[in-house]
Design goal:
The protein has two helices and eight strands; from the N terminus they run H-E-E-E-H-E-E-E-E-E. With 226 residues, the chain is mainly β. It has an eight-stranded antiparallel beta barrel with strand order 1-2-3-4-5-6-7-8. The chain is elongated. The two termini are 36 Å apart.
């Protein structure tokens, strides 16, 4: 209920009679990059989903807000790195992410012009990510408590209007986090400090890859006045 209220509140920030809006869903997969398991940058292995809203300020840029969630997992036995495979650790964590930022289109994407429009785009901003503090005991991850951290999203994608109202996109986005414990390699509990492993001078990443489908609504914006 709190998430639904927040999403509705975000919609209220925009003047619906002055700009065009998009509301829709994200569906795809997630993977993690860190001290456990494979070292692939884009390798979705768990379901990821979410909702998003865009406020198009011009044919070239839009303010974007979203909520996404996924489980992230990794297993050293899937790694081709000999040291990791021999170690045999694995973990499971749960990610819940709120994000806000700016989406930039490489080509004009004026939704009120007739015909098919296609453009690559990039997005960045700031995410607030909730996750579980982990520790790995006897090779198995255990959750200690929930924690939150700010992350920086770096997303690239391509989108096209499939009808007058619907837009389909595909994107891949890495998130650089402010924690090294998505995987249990750096537990904060002082009693668990002897369980630290891996490179504790780096931070963990996670990646969402998938499709977006958004519905457009709102009156024709006067882009020339921006």
């Amino acid at each position: 209920m709190k998430r639904l209220f927040l999403f509705i509140l975000i919609l209220g920030f925009a003047k619906s009679n002055a700009q065009i809006h998009e509301i829709g869903v994200f569906l795809g997969g997630s993977n993690y990059i860190g001290d456990v398991g494979k070292t692939n940058y884009v390798n979705p292995n768990e379901l990821a989903f979410g909702v998003l809203y865009k406020w198009n300020k011009s044919p070239r840029h839009a303010w974007r807000f979203s909520y996404m969630q996924s489980r992230i997992t990794a297993n050293d036995l899937d790694s081709k790195v000999p040291g990791r495979y021999k170690r045999g650790y694995n973990f499971v964590n749960n990610i819940k992410e709120f994000s806000a930022g700016l989406e930039f289109n490489f080509f004009d994407f004026n939704l009120h012009q007739f015909g098919t429009k296609v453009t690559p785009y990039v997005f960045t901003g700031l995410c607030y990510t909730n996750y579980e503090e982990l520790s790995i005991v006897n090779g198995i991850s255990k959750a200690d408590k929930n924690n939150s951290v700010f992350t920086i999203p770096m997303i690239v994608g391509v989108k096209a209007n499939v009808t007058k109202e619907w837009i389909l996109g595909f994107e891949a986005g890495a998130r650089y986090t402010g924690t090294d414990n998505l995987d249990g390699s750096f537990p904060k509990n002082p009693n668990l400090q002897p369980l630290k492993f891996g490179n504790n001078n780096s931070r963990d990443w996670y990646v969402f890859t998938g499709f977006t489908l958004t519905y457009t609504f709102g009156e024709k914006p006067c882009y020339c006045a921006d």
